[in-house]
Amino acid sequence: MIYAATTERSIAIVLLVVVVVGWAIYVFVNIRRSKSEVGSEIELAANRGSLPDDDALEGNRLERVQAFGVLMLLIIALALPVYWLREGGRRSGAERGFSERAAAAGERLAEELECVVCHGADLGGANYAPVVLDIGNQFSDQDTYIVKTTWRAPALDTVFARFDTDAETLDEVNEIRQILNYGRGVMPAWGLPGGGPLTPQQVDNLIAWLWRERLSDEEAREDALVAKQSEMAAHPEKTEGQILFEIHCARCHTPRWPARGAAQLPNNGGEVQIVPGPAGSGRYGPALNTVSLERLFPDIEDQISFVATGAADNVAYGEFARLGNYGMPGFGRVLSDDEIRAIAEYERSLDPAEQTTVQFTELHTTEDNK
Ligand code: HEC
Ligand code: HEC
After folding, report:
1. What percent of the chain has pLDDT over 90?
2. What's the CA gap between 230 and 340, in Å, rounded?
């Protein structure tokens, strides 16, 4: 059967059966009766029967009919405006209901696809457990090829503070759809356009879920402030710019940063610890160094405003612009101008010689440590 049984359909079928059977009985009885009373319809015809006289018709009876008419009119006159008054709320309620259902579907999907295993059950960046990922030979030379490694994933409750920062409704979300469709760095593509398993509707549901879970700008800023203060207290030797860079930028701009510290599992059976490459020498995002930054943004103010807004699709930036990328998030909602200036100054102070050395010598095996 094509149609599944529902309560409505069962009720409708019962009603249909009752009506058809009732009609059949009525027709049957009528035919029998008319047979037994041949000619009776001439006497019983309605227009030949006796009607009330004019007094009765134009008195009480007429008034009752008129009062009934007025009552019906009143009901319509009252009900229509009331219906109209509720119409706006009904429509926005339907929209809200729709996005609530989409978010709930997205949440179920996120559990199924284990987004939270990598991104943390509370979606916050601070409390996630690093996950074991197969990210190929990013770390070592052939001798100590690392098959699997632990890798920290970014917070998901603040993605809307970094991407699609001017989106006011779900319809205006582009960058996050792009990320989910095509994947990002070591995260695989989820959407069909990028070769992933999810339909556009499923990707939309995930977006509705992320939208529902998003922190307000104030909360995101507060989180960033707490992270900065605790790092600054723990590392008084570092400048504010360096600390902010490590919290917000290094995961994309410094080699191996998301794998730092944790024990890794190379396929030769030993144990190694990953040490990140030179700060800002490039990973998912390009290498940042004095020479290229001063060429790209001769005026530091332009660099600051670029970091505040991020890269938009097919919008050029800097003197030697890159095009067609959604990669770089905007930080203007989370960081203050002064904080972004501190980062920009730190970036411009990075040693250009170091930025060009991509090396594997920082990989310490347990053998080295003996
Ligand atoms: C196997 C671990 C893993 C799984 C599962 C995973 N992600 Fe990711 N995701 C990552 C990593 C790691 C990054 C950052 C990319 C990098 O470091 O190269 C990322 C990046 C993202 C970003 C971009 C955020 C940013 O600030 O850069 C979004 C959005 C995202 N993931 C959403 C999801 C959603 C939704 C799901 C579930 C469908 C999901 N992820 C499942 C590991 C994962
Ligand atoms: C999610 C990964 C990611 C994070 C986090 C990130 N960036 Fe980027 N960044 C990129 C990508 C990708 C580009 C290249 C953008 C493009 O080509 O459109 C880029 C470009 C840049 C550029 C321009 C350099 C160039 O050669 O194009 C600067 C400057 C920069 N990022 C600074 C920062 C700062 C400062 C932070 C932290 C506050 C940061 N980035 C955080 C991914 C990231």
Report:
1. 44
2. 18
Nearest CA to ligand 1 atom 38: 115
pLDDT digits over 57-91, tens only? 788 888 899 999 999 999 999 999 888 888 878 88
Q: How far is the CA of 312 from the centre of ligand 2 (A)?
A: 12
Ligand approaching nearest to the C-alpha of 255: 1
C-alpha closest to that of 125 among 230, 232, 223: 223
Mean pLDDT (whole number) for 274-297: 84
Can you state the angle between helices 300-309 and 337-348, rounded to 10 degrees? Answer: 120
pTM for this model (two decimals) = 0.76
Calculate how far, in angstroms, residue 231's C-alpha sits from the geometric centre of ligand 2.
22
Phi-psi region of 195 (alpha: psi -120 to 50; beta: other; left: phi over 0): left
* H/E segment holding residue 260: none
AA letter at 57: L
- Phi and psi torsions of 285, nearest 5°: -90, 160
Q: List the chain domain ranges.
A: 111-369
Residue 152 CB–ligand 1 contact under 6 Å:
no
Length of the chain: 370
**Substitution site in 221, 247, 293, 328 for ligand 2 pocket (most atoms within 8 Å of beta carbon):** 328
DSSP 334: T
Query: pLDDT tens-digit profile of 164-211?
Result: 988 888 889 999 999 999 998 878 899 999 999 999 999 999 999 999
